[in-house]
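Researcher: If only I could read backbone structure tokens as easily as an amino acid sequence. Walk me, if you will, through where the backbone shape changes along the chain. I have put the entry right below:
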Amino acid sequence: MEPLERFLSGIKEFLNIPIFSLGEFRLTLWTLLYLLILLVLLLYLSGRMRRWITDRLLARTSIPIGRRQAIATIVHYLVVVVGLLIILQTAGIDLTTLNVLAGAIGIGVGFGLQNIANNFISGLIILFERPIKVGDRIEVGDVEGDVTNIGARSTTVVTNDNISIIIPNAKLISENVINWSHNDNKVRFKIPVSVAYGTDV
């Protein structure tokens, strides 16, 4: 038993080696492992909860599929944000000490991740205002098809040839979007047919 205890104590000492200090908080390998496991668990459970809300909870109501997915996605984002704050607090990280780090990250987002932030905010606008929703028939530029998914960064449109096209959400906000089924699900297709002169009617 003594070799096993020495081995476990050695692992414990190794995991408790501080990487750097932030105020009174010391970041160790054990803290990183703890944060990583809880973050993966949070993302997995919140994803399962979003599917459960869409396919089980709200499926019993008369809410359309597009609105169900919008509600589930918004709840998913809220759960991830609140869960991340709880995880950081339970890990012993004082959020007030992260003000400088948050400012630096904000500058990085403003310059380096501008397109990603733009697409994310555009996705939230689409979910709240609902100019398009899942199941709509839309046309954006040369892309025409049915909306199958509205994500945080992009929207998936499936064409008549069963080809999935990923459109950034910012494009759906900044450009003209033709929504064939915005008010009514009835869609009319106009198919021109050429007939030679002199053809028997």
Observations:
- The domain at 135-179 is CATH 2.30.30.60 (SH3 type barrels.).
- The chain has a mean pLDDT of 80.
